[in-house]
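pinging the channel bc i need a second pair of eyes. not urgent but kinda urgent?? the chain im working w is below, pasted from the shared doc
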Amino acid sequence: MKIVIIGAGFGGMACAIWLAEAGHEVELYEQAPQLRTSGNGVLLLPNGTGLLSDLGVELSGLGARMDSVDGLYHDGSLSLRVQLSKIAAKFGSPVLVGSRGLIVERMAACLLDGSLRLNMRCTGIEQNGDGPVRVTFADGSEVKADLVIGADGQRSVVRTKLFGEDPAVYLGDATWHGITELPGAFAEGHAVHSIFGNEGICVMHPVGDGKVYWAFELPFDDGDILPPGAPGDTASLKEPGSAVANLRARFGQWTAPGLRNLLDAMKDEDVSVFPHIIHRELPQWGEGPITLVGDAAHVVPPRVGMGLSQALEDAWVLSRALAGGGRDPIARVRAYEQVRIKRVRGMQKAARALGRKTVPAPPWLLRAFGRLLPVTKLNMAQVRGSSNYLNNDLPEEVA
């Protein structure tokens, strides 16, 4: 089949690699003039690292290995610990926090030569009867395809063409985040610090080379949403001025390990803002020979920590559904959607449950929670439950 993929993010590139390996004619279109290799740290759970390995992406040097998530109160006292090393051992693949840009570069190197077309903004998709799908672009060109995959992110043109204006809704929080050089023991370690207090939440991840990915979560007013590419906003913070100054004003009294050093080292140019949004759940992700993957289908807030891994999961299931025999290709695409939707719904429910819960429970309750509940086993079950790959869960005719 000739397959056209709109969007060269993680899901789009993974689809292009696997579908080309399966013998399909694949063309990958990206509206930007070059692949986006900027960005911050991304969490790769064992399904994510396993899927990257299957794609042919070398994991060595991709990021820092994470052995635990330490839930700390703002004074540095330990509330709970998730032992990521046990989760990695269970599934036979590491947990990493990697550089988004480096992952993009390594995935791009796995693309078939000539399959990627840059600076091609999709403007229209049309299908008449049983014929091929016609895709048009802003430069006036068009292509025809047997199958179109929308991998074009949260503002997906393909999703809009399928289901009309259906924007993701804001959940009331936002993440101020970035990567900063931070000399010292924390940046060389293998623990995520997730720090809670009345002012909000701060998460710190070593990403290798003496750098730390950090994220502060705070309430965000819907009226203060930034346009794409805007610099860090300060409207929802306590004091006027720079983003870093506002973060220092809010969190400077916290004494958790490494946080004050981080606040001192941060620069305004490090900061970007991501409002927390979520798509409504769809009964299916496409119509006819058109479907969706990644954020175009199921954007969720970064607090869930599964965006990249879930995009790879979509691409893995879809490519294998289309490599199998049996039913016609459109039936196989619908089968892909249904086995993935079952897994994604749990992730979406967890994201909605977290919702606006930026302010944590009292310290005594968090400590009791950490002592009484098997938090590592619960997280292990969550990772497995969200993954088709770890369960070899494929449409029946290709399983």
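so The two ends are 21 Å apart (CA to CA). and The first helix runs from residue 10 to 21. — does that match what u expected or am i reading it wrong
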